[in-house]
Design goal:
The chain is an alpha+beta fold. It has 2 helices and 11 strands; from the N terminus they run αβββαββββββββ. The radius of gyration is 24 Å and the shape is globular. Mean pLDDT is 85; it is low at 1-22 and 28-34.
Length: 242
């Protein structure tokens, strides 16, 4: 009887040690995930800070195309502009060419440029950066993903202050340096009560070592004008680096 009790006690102790070991492994794995998440977020913040500090200005060409309804082959309106950015000053745009609907140009694309100017003014632009100060970030499971030829981490992002230009969705960052590779989601706030949800995405590439937008797409459904898709292609960047 004593032997059976002793054997039972040994088994229980062994099982307890196993449970404790498993629990310790779980806690260790959880801590590793949290550490990885914190490291990735710090890397993203550091990369954004380096870009802000070292990119003193740039010029580039942007081509806008607006599609209506289900037709994404024949744009209703197109516009090409030269963009100029200066740190501490903001953005200016020179319209190089435009065609198509005058109404879409007047009430759609021209106000879009004006809004971009406002967002990039000192005092405003800081609130749009993909940083942990502006977004709550959470590392998504699944490990490294391949995006645009880069090994990337995926971060779930939610803006700390909702605005039409702030995205709620996923941010993919380069696993080596934390630079932004892609962002996709929905606008965190509708620009008007009559506008539907706006789906947004933007791809980035490394230009002189810094992330610069290469392609963007926004899709919305309005009560009055229906489905509208706006695409922007960026090219011919020239950066002024510190």
């Amino acid at each position: 009887m004593r032997f059976r009790q002793w054997r039972t006690a040994v088994v229980l102790i062994a099982l307890g040690a196993g449970v404790g070991s498993i629990e310790a492994q779980k806690n260790g794995a959880r801590a590793a995930r949290e550490l990885d998440e914190a490291s990735v977020i710090r890397m993203v913040d550091s990369t954004v800070a380096a870009r802000v500090e070292n990119v003193l200005g740039f010029t580039g060409i942007e081509h806008y195309a607006v599609y209506r309804g289900d037709d994404e082959k024949h744009p209703a309106t197109e516009m090409t502009v030269r963009e100029t950015y200066k740190k501490g000053v903001g953005k200016t745009f020179e319209i190089l060419a435009e065609s198509g609907s005058d109404m879409i140009l007047r009430f759609g694309l021209h106000p879009l440029l004006d809004n971009d100017k406002t967002l990039n003014q000192p005092g405003n632009v800081e609130h749009s950066w993909f940083t942990s100060a502006n977004y709550a970030m959470k590392l998504k499971p699944g490990g490294v993903q391949k995006i645009n030829g880069h090994d990337c981490y995926a971060l779930e992002i939610a803006p700390r202050q909702k605005a039409p230009h702030m995205i709620e969705g996923t941010l993919w960052v380069d696993a080596q340096n934390g630079s932004v590779t892609r962002v996709a989601g929905v606008a965190s706030k509708s620009p008007s009560p009559l506008a539907g949800t706006t789906k947004m995405m933007r791809d980035y590439a490394q230009i002189n070592g810094f992330s610069m937008a290469t392609h963007a797409r926004a899709e919305s459904n309005s009560l009055f004008v229906g489905r509208t898709v706006v695409t922007i292609d960026y090219r011919d960047y020239h950066l002024q680096i510190r």
